[in-house]
């Protein structure tokens, strides 16, 4: 009943006989004291976010958000983030943050920047604890990938001086992510002349450079460069391939540049016609017009009966055996060089003479013969 409230209760009955009836009524109450007590709930939420895929060279950025989702103040709030083997942050595999007090509805954020030392899949769990014993956790799975380049080289096994030589290079990405900004650099070997390249290769200083851009995982690209060998020897083509987040790789291959000997035999008579009894001088000139040495050059001259040997000399000494004069072999005649021999004979009869010269070398499969006409009168 409320304060100063009155209520009337009426009771009706009947008497079974005559007499006096006495009725009694009384009221009782229990004193009550009320005090409101608020019941609150302690609750906590942790959300961890991070990339699902990164390359080995990328930093891995994790964000941890802690929210007091309950109705009571939380104290002693502490976040810990333990990283798997292969991940570190500031040189350590763990990170933590002491948040302290977190009021209802309040959110605090904690950032972790990690670095991977290997490829693979990493599961990272962040936890939060409080002095009230409330805990929460969340995890992120991150896959770390990386490109892995290899390069191979092919070229002509052997070419002659002055002939085109092609060197080709195949760059393969053996990794599990794309190789970005991929480049190939080829040093121009000494003894060669650059004549162009495929796939946009350009000459930069003493190198041929290709910008290949992106090479997908398990894909490859081929580039080629063209050269001409300018001298005898071995041309070694050395190229390097590199890209973002990939260690540079190198390859080499060689092509043998050979020369071609090509000898020219010339014979002239100094005086023509010539009087019987006079001496005639024949000049024999051998020129190596090729690109390689000619070796063991031997000159043999044949006189007709109307001529008589007088003397011989020049690049090597000559010896007469009847009407045949043999010069000692010339060991080597370099490319572009000349050798000269002179043979003096005496005209003993009039006639239309044919002076014959026969030359052999190690490089010629057949003798080279030359005849000079001389009129003796």
Summarize this entry quickly.
The protein has 377 residues and is an all-beta fold. It has strands at residues 45-49, 53-55, 60-67, 74-82, 87-88, 94-102, 107-116, 120-129, 135-145, 149-155, 158-160, 164-173, 179-187, 192-197, 202-204, 207-215, 220-229, 233-243, 246-258, 263-269, 279-288, 294-302, 307-314, 318-321, 324-327, 330-333, 338-347, 351-360, 368-376.
Contiguous uncertain segments of 5+ residues: none
- Name the overall outline: rod-shaped
* Major sheet size, sense and barrel closure: 6 strands, mixed
Beta-strand content bin: over 45%
Q: CATH superfamily name of the largest domain?
A: Immunoglobulins
* End-to-end separation: 173 Å
Count of structural domains: 3
Which structural class do the helices and strands define?
mainly beta
Using only CA atoms, what is the Rg? 53 Å
DSSP E strands, number: 29
The number of distinct helices, counting runs of at least 4 residues, comes to 0
Q: Order the strands across the largest sheet as they lie in space.
A: 11-19-18-13-16-15
Share in helix: under 10%
Q: Looking at CATH, which topology of the largest domain would you report?
A: Immunoglobulin-like
In CATH, the architecture of the largest domain is Sandwich
